[in-house]
Task: structure prediction
Amino acid sequence: MATSDDDCEQIHNFRCVCGVPLREKPFHIERLLFCQRCKDFLVVPSLPGSQARKPDFSIDTERLEIRILRRRDSLAVNKIWSDERNYEFEISPPASLKEVKVAIKQSKVPSGFRKSHRLQIGGFCREGGELIVTFSLQFYALYYHASLGFMVANGQQGRGYGTEALEGLCRLLHREIKLERIVAMCDPANEACIKVLKKNGFRLEGVSERFFHHDERGWIDAPIFVLLREECSRDVDVS
Result:
């Protein structure tokens, strides 16, 4: 958390977007922080004495526009989150429109994100604007680490959208806010999800025993996949 208190070690000086002088250890350079003065998020600049910038959680890939979900996207999100066909490997039930709106509100930057540490991100087709894939990101350790889950719209699966969207999102997070570690867990029977993760360079780190409970299959051990910043690759085959 950025601070201007005198007891903070004066190593890297910079200014918030609101103009207040701040200082942090070099470790925080190019990382996401929260300014207590303006109550907004910033990315610490690398040049001492320069002004920070606001984070840009958006990126375009070949076919998709990836950005934070907004209230006006609620119906499109609900179409995916309420579709029972998308829940074969999920332990939670399909979401209601009210739950969708709450999730999007809790993801709003800066107010919702500051409290929830969660972002809801969507991948929209650049031709036509259809919502194709959604991501739920939960941040930890002062925004250095995050876990993610994703869902591809029924009817759009098997066309490389999930792989393309995840590649763009990981590149964005590693480049924009210097995220060190992204973790994903899934049902071991969800071969399509595992394929998408592996195509994007995620590697199996371990297994969390009895992590999911299925009404018919009982306890399920969940594989833990991880992608570190230096492992993020731009060369991903989306086919």
Residues 4-8 have pLDDT under 50 and may be disordered. Residues 161-176 form the longest helix (16 residues). The helical segments are 74-81, 97-107, 111-116, 161-176, 191-199. The longest strand covers residues 203-214.
